[in-house]
C-alpha cells in the first residue's frame, strides 16, 4: 500500500509486519478520507465542516459497537474491526478529526507552542496508534514518538510553503514572522524569509533528533520502517538547507537517488549511550 499521499502517516510498506497491515491500512484510510474532506475539492467551508461532523459522528457510532452506515462503510467497516481486535483508542482517532476541523477554520498560529498544539492533534496520534499496535506504551517512548511526529509535520509545513501559502494556508507562527519583520499576507522571498525558514528548520531538526532514539525501541521491521521515516525527514531538511531555505518559491522532495543514502544512514543510526550514575 502506498501512503505517500498522506504526509503525516509513516508508510505501511512491505517492512510492516503482515499481521499489522490491515489495522494500519484501516487507520490510514480513515485519516486520508477525513483529510480529503477538509482539504480537497471546492466545497464551501460550512459544507466541509458539516461533512466532518457527520464523519466524526460515524466514528462515535462504530466506537459504540453499532454497524457502520452505508455511506462510509468501506472506511468504518475495517476501522471498526481494527478497533475491536486491537483496542484502538477512540480518543486518538477523534483527535485526528479535531485537527481536520482546525484546517477548515484555517486559523493563524500566534507562536510555536500553538503550532505544536495543532501537531498534537494532527500528527502525534498517528505515532501513538502505531506504538499501541506494537504494545509500546511507556512515557519515554510516547514522548519520543510525539517528537518524531511533530517534527515530520513541521518539516512538511516548511517544505510546502510554496504550495500552502497560495492556497491561503499559513502555518508560520506569527511570533517568528514578527521577529523577522515579516507579515503573513505580504510574505515575499528574500533574506528575511530565508533566515526565518532556516530557524524553523533547525527547530524541526532538533525535535526529530530528540525522538530518533525511538527507532531502537521498536522490534524488527517496525524499527527499520521508523529509521527510514526519520532519515527521510532529516534528508528533506538537508535539501531545504541546500536551496538556501527558499521554499517560498520551490518545493524540495525526495528522489530515487536519495534511496541508498537513506538506507546507509538508517543502518548507521547510533544507539543512545546509557547515562552513568554519579557516585554517592
From TrEMBL:
Pfam families linked to this entry: SQS_PSY (PF00494)
InterPro entries, sorted: HSQ_synthase_HpnC (IPR017827), Isoprenoid_synthase_dom_sf (IPR008949), Squ/phyt_synthse (IPR002060), Trans_IPPS_bact-type (IPR044843)
Protein name: Squalene synthase HpnC
